[in-house]
Amino acid sequence: MKHSIQSIFIFGLSALLLIYLKRQGAILLLPNSFINIMVGIIILTIWNEIHFFIVHRVMHLPFFMKRVHKIHHHSKVPTVFAVYSFHWFEALLLSTVPLTIAVFIPLSAVAIFLYPLVSILLNFAGHCNYRFGNGKGPSWRLFGSKHNAHHFKFANHYGFASGIMDKLHKLIIPKINQRKK
User: Which residue ranges run through the membrane (predicted)?
Assistant: First the structure.
């Protein structure tokens, strides 16, 4: 509970930084039309997949796993209570999703402030210890059921709500290693 409250506080502070950057002119906002809100949520969801994968892979490096990410993995069988159970440093990194995209791509304010709701729902799906669908096909990969297995094995399935980044990583890394030889 202590780590979750601390993480929620840190995520909340990132909203203040967004407001500050908007007031400084570093972030441009689009009008809050239905299409801008929907496109913004889609962009944030895609960016969150990429951002989360990178941060999560770094957290599994031995240095960070021993000192930071182990707190999240105390839940070997994840529950919704593990959703925000992070070391403060990991929470800080994960809270930067809107900050790291909004300075480059204009989004609507409503999309930025609705996205945490979308994110938490996807996060609940990945930590609710329930397999969506039959365990095969897109319904299983889409809702983060593989993240349950990740908590148990501590390896594989580093993505957020889908397995797309894991698949790309498996395709790209072997090719890079082959070029080095």
Answer: 33-56, 101-122
